[in-house]
Write a structure and sequence with these properties.
Blueprint (H helix, E strand, L loop, with lengths): L1 E2 L5 H10 L5 H12 L13 H10 E2 L4 E7 L5 E6 L5 E9 L2 E5 L3 E3 L8 H5 L1 E4 L2 H12 L10 E4 L9 H11 L12 E5 L3 H10 L3 E5 L5 H7 L8 H9 L9 E7 L7 H10 L5 E7 L13 H13 L3 E4 L26
Parallel strand pairs: 1-2, 6-9, 9-10, 10-11, 11-12, 12-13, 13-14
Antiparallel strand pairs: 3-4, 4-5, 5-6, 7-8
Helix pairs in contact: 1-2, 5-6, 7-9, 10-11
The structure holds iron/sulfur cluster.
Length: about 350
Amino acid sequence: MKNLRDFTYPELLLEVEALGERPYRAAQIYGWVFHRDAASIDSMTDISRELRERLKHEYRISGIDVLDVKRSEDGTRKFLSSLEDGARMESVIIPEEGRLTLCVSSQAGCALGCLFCMTGAAGFTRDLSLSEMAGQVFAARGLLNEGERITNIVLMGMGEPLNNYGNVIRFLSVLTDGKGMGFSHNKVTVSTAGLVPGIKKLGHDTNVNLAVSLNATTDEVRSRIMPINRRYPIAELISALKGYPLKNKKYITIEYVLIKGLNDTADDAKRLIRLLRGVTCKINLIPFNLFPGAAFERPDAEKVDAFHGIVYDAGYTVIVRASKGADIDAACGQLRGRRAVPDRVK
Ligand code: SF4
C-alpha cells in the first residue's frame, strides 16, 4: 500500500487523475497530509466517504516510530526512530535564541566515512524516503513543549543529503510549499560534505540555504579526515561555491570542525581566509565533539579563541558554535542511530 506522505503535489495529481478524480482532490489530500498532518484517511472530513473508502484500498498514511527520546540539560532533544524495514535514524531538536531548529537525517547512516563523525564510523544503511524525512518533522512536533514551534530545518543529521538527491529535492519541495509544510526557504538549510556536482545542481533546483563542511585548508589534511576530498578536492569545491547562485542576500555557511593539532593552527586560520576570498559566506567554528573511540581531541579554549580572532580580524562573520546536546550525544558528529548503551549516558 502506498504512503500518501510519499507524494509531492505534482505526483499526487497524477495519482488522483489515475483514480478518475478531479484535480482539486489532489490539493485537498495534499493539504490534509502535509499541512494539517492528518493521521488517517478517515480524518479527511471534507472528502466524501465513498472516495475515502476507495483511497483506503490503495493508500495509507504512515509515520515513523519514535523509539527513544533523550533530553539534554540545555533543552536539546534527540530522538531515535525506527523505520518500516527496521532501519534506524536520529533527529535533534535544538533550542537557540529566538528559534527552534530541527536537525533532520537524510540517510540511515552515511557512506562518506568522515573520521570526526560517529555516523560515518557506524556505516551506511540506506537512503531515506520523502515520508521518512517529513515524518521526522511531524514526530518532532509531537515532542515539543507547550508554546514551542519548529522555526528552522537543517539537513545536517545522519547522512549526506546530496547523495540522496532526488528524495531530498522532493522533501524540500513539500517542506517549502505554502500549501504543504509551509517553511520559508530562508529557514531551511542543506549541509553537504562537498559533493561538487550536487552543489551545482542544488543551486539551480532550490533556493534554500547551503552549508558546507570544510574542516581543513589543505588537501592532505582534508583527504585524511574526509575521504570525499579525494574525489572533489578543495580547489574544485571552492570554485563551485564561488559559482553558487545566492539569492535574497544569502550567504553560504562554512562549517569548520576544529581538531586539536590537526587543523587549528594560526597557519590554518590564515589559509582559510585566503581560500574563502570571493566566497560569500559566514563561518561556523565547531570545536570537535568527542565520542567513544574517536581518534581526535578537542582544542583548548585559547586555541579556539586565537583561530577565531585571526578569521574575525580578516573581516569575516565568524562564530564559535557552542554545540548543544553534547551530554546526550546529540551534538554535531555524534549521531549514530542506535540506542545509547547505558554506561555511556551521563
Ligand atoms: S560528517 Fe556528514 S557526510 Fe561526513 S560521515 Fe558524518 S554524516 Fe556523513
